[in-house]
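Suppose you are handed a protein chain with no further information: no name, no annotation, nothing but its sequence. What can you learn? This example shows the usual starting point.
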Amino acid sequence: MLNNPGHPLPMNGGFELGAHQTKTFTVPDHWAGRFWGRTGCDASGHCQTGDCGNKIACNGAGGVPPVSLAEITFDGDGGQDFYDVSLVDGYNLPMKMLPIAGTFRRVTNSHYDCNEAGCHSDLNAHCPNELAIRSGNKVIACKSACLAFNTDEYCCRGAHNRPETCKSSQWKVNYPAMFKKSCPEAYSYAYDDHSSTFTCHGNPSTGYVVQFC
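A reasonable first move is to predict its three-dimensional structure. Written in structure tokens, the prediction is:
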């Protein structure tokens, strides 16, 4: 886990989680930050994907991309939270984020009101060769086009730093479209907001599940 600046860091930023295990923790109202999973880890905390500096508790370090991310900004006090699952930094694991029944209230009929954000597909299974990260013959993560090629066009910077000039449909190879086809409820590139950002109102404060599936 990584807190946004000015917010506390829960659980020292990371812990080991076995198959079918859960961890429960609380954060204060108005907290903001991100969550990710690490894979191929040894006893010292060095991980093949999502590594945060060869340690179990990340202590404020981010995960090395490519990595699937769950991001949230809490409002609290019955206000509106914003959350999403992002593949902008690439992909390593399927994951989803959803509000816990009984802790929220819907205020619209929108698909993006208190529903599940996430990516259920195994993108590693059909990651293009030029984006693939391998351990031996196995693909363990899939880079974003920005991470792989580091161009202004793919990274939505420079002359492409606005939604009007950073459109995946204009790119020579539309890598984000491959991600979006497999994971329609997740961010595929920086300006993919309209079909990726979810909101929810607390009742009075929403609880969420982040699941690696």
